[in-house]
Specification:
The chain contains four helices and seven strands, in the order E-H-H-E-E-E-H-E-H-E-E. It is an alpha+beta fold and about 160 residues long.
Length: about 160
């Protein structure tokens, strides 16, 4: 059984470390835009953990900014991939953004992370240029998706 629940990022430290280690093998340091655990504990960040049959297998966050939400720290452990966990985490984060009145979700991911890019595209994300404080980077892919609040479907 899959559960996606808000949690303190400290509880997923081993997943965040695994993500950092993986990305550091793919990209130069200045192309890794890694929020640290203390940044993920701020009030404007919604952080979730995914548990499959009680085992912690994934995590993700959304920064709730003025005009959009930014997906950060999406990760599913390799042994738990291809089971819809990434989609479930993403759906929860998008739902949170929409429930907070945000209609746009953005993200930055690495060009070499093709599975992640495929996941985002399959969930309706489209390529865009840099946003926020990001600058053009040959290692980065920038994406966004419009989201609607659950109440909007009743209109």
């Amino acid at each position: 059984m899959l559960e996606i629940q808000p949690t303190n990022p400290i509880e997923t430290r081993h997943l965040i470390v695994a993500l950092d280690e993986y990305q550091s093998t793919l990209y130069p340091a200045d192309s890794n835009h890694l929020d640290q655990i203390h940044e993920l504990q701020q009030d404007h960040v919604y952080f979730v953990a995914a548990k499959l049959d009680g085992n912690l297998v994934g995590c993700g966050a959304i920064k709730l900014l003025d005009d959009y939400g930014e997906i950060k720290r999406m990760y599913v452990s390799p042994a738990a991939r291809q089971q819809g966990i990434g989609k479930a985490i993403l759906a929860e984060l998008e739902s949170r953004a929409a429930s907070q009145g945000l209609h746009l979700v953005r993200l930055e991911t690495g060009r070499l992370q093709t599975a992640a890019i495929q996941l985002y595209r399959s969930c309706g994300y489209r390529d865009v240029g840099p946003f926020g404080d990001y600058i053009e980077d040959p290692h980065s892919v920038f994406m966004e998706k419009r989201v609607r609040s659950p109440d909007a479907s009743r209109l």
